[in-house]
Amino acid sequence: MRHRYNSCVNCLGELMGHESFQVKESSLCTLMKFVELEAKHPLAKEEWSFNFPRELLKLVVKGLISTEEDSSLLISRFQEYLEHDDVRFFVMKAVAESIGNVMQKTKEPLPVYQKNVFAFISSISMPSNENEIKNFLVKHANQEEWKVSKLKEHKRAFERMWLGFLKHKLPSSLYKKVLVILHDSILPHLNEPTLMIDFLTVAYDIGGAISLLALNGLFVLILHHNLEYPDFYKKLYSLLDPSIFYVKYRARFFRLLDLFLSSSHLPSYLVAAFAKRLARLALAAPPDALLMVIPFICNLLRRHPSCKVLVHRPGGPEEMSADPYVMEEEDPLESRALESSLWEIQTLQSHYHPEVAKAATSVNTALSETEDDLLELMELTSYEIFDRDLKKTATAVPLEFQQVAGLFGQKNDVLAEYFTLE
C-alpha cells in the first residue's frame, strides 16, 4: 500500500507539468489534500512531536516553479493554501532549497525559472506580529512550543529565501519588479535588512530606472537602519539626465527625488546643484514634463531660501560673460551651481506652449510660502495636455475687418452671387 501511494504521489507530481491547466489544477489540489491528511495522520512517526509532510510539500513546490514554462496561473491557484501559517513557513524553506539546487548549477540567468520563483515568493504575505500566526493547517496540543508559531522563525525563513534568490544574477526585467516592491514588501520583514546592501549596490551599477529604484531601497536603509552611504546624493545627482523625462517610472522618479530633497538640513550647494541641473535639462524637455519640473524647482527654492539667489542675483545673468555652472561635473560640490542663475527658467517664459510659459513666469515675483502640489502634475502625459487643449472653449475676440464678398473681393462683383465667402 505504501509503495502504491508513493507511485500515485509521483504521478501527480509529473501531472503538474501537464499541458492542460485543468489537469495541473486537479493534481495540485489532490497533492495538497494529501499534505493535509499526512499532517494529521503521519505515515512515519518522527522523533519530535510536531509532524509536517515536508517532503511531499517540496514535490508540490518543485511542480509550481517550473524551469521550462510559465507557471503564474498555477501559482495564483496555490494562494489559498499560503493562508495557512505552517504551509507558508515550510513553503519558504522548500523554495530556498530549490533555488540553491537549481541556480548553483549555472552562472547564467534562467529567465523562466527565476520568473516563476519571483511570481511565487512575491505573492507570499508575511504576518506583521506574532498574534497573527494562528491559522494552521495542522493543529497540535502544544502549538505555542512549535517554532512555526514564532514570528522570528518566519522572518528567518523569509530572509533566507529572498537572499538566496537575489544573490544570483537576474534578468533585467526582474530587477525592476523586485526593486518596486523591495521597500514595502521585503525590507520590513527581514531580521537584518542591511543584508540587502550587496544586491542594491549591484542593481545601482546597472544604470537607468533600475538605479533610481535601487536608490529608493538604499534611502530606506539609511533612514531606518542607520546605514552609512556617503555617496548617496552624489549618485542621485548623476542620475539626472535627459532620459528621466521619458522613462516609464518618471512619476516615481520625481516622487522619490522630492522625498530625498525634502530635508531642510541639506546644504545649499547641494540643493542649488539639483535645481540648476533640472533647469538645464528642462530646456529640452517635453511640455508635460515642464509643467511638473518648473513647480518642482520652485518648491526647492521655497524650502531653501538661501538658494533664491539663483533667481534674484544682483545684476542677473545679463552681466555674466558665461555661465559658471559645470554641467558635466558629477560632484554637486564642484558644479559651481550657487555661482550661477536660473536663466533657463527665464528662457522658458518664451516657450511655445502657453501653460509652460505661464508656469515659468512664477519666478518673476516673490514665491509664496505654500508649496505647489505636484502629485497630479507628476502623472501628467502629453495625451492629457492635448486632450485638455482640445476641450477648451475659445472665447470670442472682436475683430475689425470687412467681410469678403465675391471671387475677387469686390462689393459689386458679377460672381458675388455664386462665390460668397462666409
What does the model show?
This protein has about 425 residues and is mostly helical. It folds into two domains: about 1-170; about 250-395, no CATH class. About 50% of the residues lie in helices and about 0% in strands. It is built from 18 helices and no strands. Helix 1 runs antiparallel to helix 2 (about 20-40), helix 9 (about 195-205) packs antiparallel against helix 10 (about 210-225) and helix 14 (about 285-305) runs parallel beside helix 16 (about 355-360). It is elongated and about 105 Å long. The termini are far apart. The relative contact order is 0.05.
Q: Gap between N and C termini, in Å?
A: 96 Å
Task: Indicate how many domains the architecture comprises.
Answer: 2
Strand content range: under 5%
Give me the count of strands.
0
Query: What is the makeup of the main sheet?
Result: none
What is the rounded Rg? 31 Å
Residue ranges: pLDDT <50 for 5 or more in a row? Answer: none
* Average pLDDT number: 84
Structural class computed from helices and strand pairing: mainly alpha
In sequence order, what are the helices and strands, one letter per element? HHHHHHHHHHHHHHHHHH
Overall 3D shape: elongated
Estimate percent helicity: 40-55%
Number of helices: 18
